[in-house]
Amino acid sequence: MFTRNPRTLNICGTWDEKQFLTSNSSMFATLNIAAGPKTPGDRACDLCKQKKVRCNMANPCQTCTNRKLDCTFNEIRKKRGPASGRLAKMQQRQSKASPEKSVAAATNPPPSLEFWPSTTSFLQSSDDNAAPEWRAESDTQEEPLQNMNGEFGATEFMLPSMPIESPSSENSFNLFAAIQGHDLSPAVEAVEIWPKSISQEALLPWIDVYFRRLHPTVPVLSRTMVYQEMLLRTHHCDPQFGAMLLALCAFAMTQPVQIHEVASTPSRSVQARMLLEESLKMRMTVDFGESPTVYMILTSFFVFACLFGSGQHRAANHRLREAVDLANSLAMHLPQAYDSLNPETRDQWLRTYLVLSVTERAYALQKRHTISFRGSPAVNACFMRAFGSFNSSSVHQDQTDAIGMTGLLYLMETFDAIDESVVECWAGYCKYSDGHCEAFDRRRALRMFRAQQRAREDCLVGSISFEPSASILPLHQLLESQQADISVTQFWLLNRLWELCMSHGLLRENSEHAELRLDFAYRVARKLLAACDVLSIPSMEVHGVGLVEKIFDIAMGLVKAMNSSTQLSLEFSLSDYDPLIDKASVVGPTVRSLLQRLHELVQNFRGGDHDYLSRFTMTLSAIPGYSGAVEPRH
Predict the structure, then answer these.
(1) C-alpha angle with apex 233: 227 to 236, nearest 5 degrees?
(2) Per-residue pLDDT tens for 574-608?
(3) Which of 252, 440, 473, 616 counts the highest number of beta carbons within 10 A?
């Protein structure tokens, strides 16, 4: 059972994380499981059990004596059978009680329950010692009836293996217990759609994991907004918000897994699956999508992210299409749709649109799909105005949100040149197989390579080409996880463009343009490793298997270049001076050394607990003359 050590939690959430890990060592701790009686006599009488009060187990007990009722402590109880007869007897005894007692009971009602009506009985009780007496009768039929009536919650999750940075759910108890049931609006009290099998309190640490690890690169939610809505119990009456919370927690549970947490991956996967199932149950109706909301979009996006991480790519693509279709239904991609929105809603829409746009284009290049968001989002004046208003207000509000938005804008500029024509060529829908492709040629390829180089230079110095007047942080001042995401993605896009040039027959051994030569794959791999050398492994692990897949793609590009070129070999090296990367022009590492270092990087990612390590190892073993001995770095 999780130890309780309540502390005050403010709206931004402060936690004692290490103590939580120390005091809660079990992988799965379920709540609401009543302990059976230690002895046949270790139980409460019927009246005490029904009233949920302490029974002193005397004959008669003190409670029955005070109420002048016949105590049933010594009556023989049946193991099976309906409880209607016993309940009828109890009701008959109570009806004979004096009117004065009834009036006294009416004028002194029991205290209202705490904020969570479906949480466990020991969370609702202020006296921990009183709980065993009225929970003891696990072999009778009264307790299942009470469960069905909602007086007792069903067995709940206490989610497993909290990360080191994660807070204790114990600290959040005081925050939500401060709101009493009678303070809520009648509408909230009347409608209850939250699944009783899930403890809202147990989800709070995972919401914090999202804001600590994932929010910098997926800044689609405001911490203050989420906690305010939970305090108002919006998730109990709004199925779309509740479904979004469950999907968000599943996302936080499965993606940002670091190497010291790999052992908990199976348990995380099981619990995340249960959360996703409950999330989809909450929001599915016959007319789902008729009135789309941002919460619907984010739920589909979080479900997509979970399915992507588990390798279920057909289902993941369906959920991503669902999120994009819902956004299209709101006209989230059209400038005029933002004109009538208030600043907060406009900011929420902008963040959601940019995350979806970047994700859709990246996923299309990874899995050869098409995209639905057309055109270039960077040229939209509406988005520039939205960014301007956000940037000015963020100085006085939340700097974390401003940093997250900055990284998102860098990614948007990086993907801005990857439009629908390029994606369709990559997916194989162009006419190159017929001998001529009208969408992608040598001139178009060079223009896109230049755009990628410009995007890299802009983020290093802290500027954006489509909004030169914006004052934003350079890449090295962003969070390390943002640096990892942006840098790896930028070099991966260079690799994707280079591979597209290879498939269209645009590469030459000695082209006048470096980007159109076979050894360009060597340059990309070298720059990637230079960027990763200054990053920690946890900053890359937080992005899940999607990031290691990008590193794997760059490594495979180098292998393809070596197999296709007469000049590239394992001992090939190249002198390359790049003022953005290198201090001086020196002889670069060999191809063998680059492959070894890339293999080491893939192996260190989550301790090699992913499919790409075995695939990379098999590819290297098939290269004639390759040895796994690591060469000294240059």
Answers:
(1) 125
(2) 875 555 555 555 678 999 999 999 999 999 999 99
(3) 252
Cβ neighbours for 374, distance < 8 A, ≥ 6 positions apart: 333, 419, 420
Looking at residue 228, the DSSP 8-state letter turns out to be H
Residue 258 in contact with residue 538, Cβ under 8 Å? yes
First to last CA, the chain: 54
Six token digits for residue 243:
């479904």
Distance CA 384, CA 378 (A): 8
Task: Output Rg (C-alpha) for the chain, integer angstroms.
Answer: 30
**Predicted TM-score (pTM) of this structure:** 0.70
What residues contact 461, with CB distance under 8 A and at least 6 apart? 474
Higher pLDDT, 121 or 26: 26
Burial of 112 (0-12, 13-18, 19+ CB in 10 A): exposed
Tell me the sheet residues that pair with 517: 508
Widest Cα–Cα separation across the chain: 104
Contact 56, 66 (CB under 8 A): no
Strand pairing partners for 156? 31
Write the DSSP string, 513-551: SGGGBTTHHHHHHHHHHHHHTTS-HHHHHTTTHHHHHHH
Copy the structure tokens of residue 432: 């190159």
Degrees, nearest 5: CA angle 500-378-217: 80
SS3 (DSSP) at 587: strand
What 3-state class would DSSP assign to 449?
helix
3-state helix, strand, coil in the chain (%, to 5): 60, 0, 40
Q: How confident is the model at residue 116 (pLDDT cuts 50, 70, 90)?
A: very low
**C-alpha 117: how far from its chain's center?**
26
Q: Which amino acid is at 293?
A: T
Residue 534's contacts (CB-CB under 8 Å, 6 or more residues apart) are none
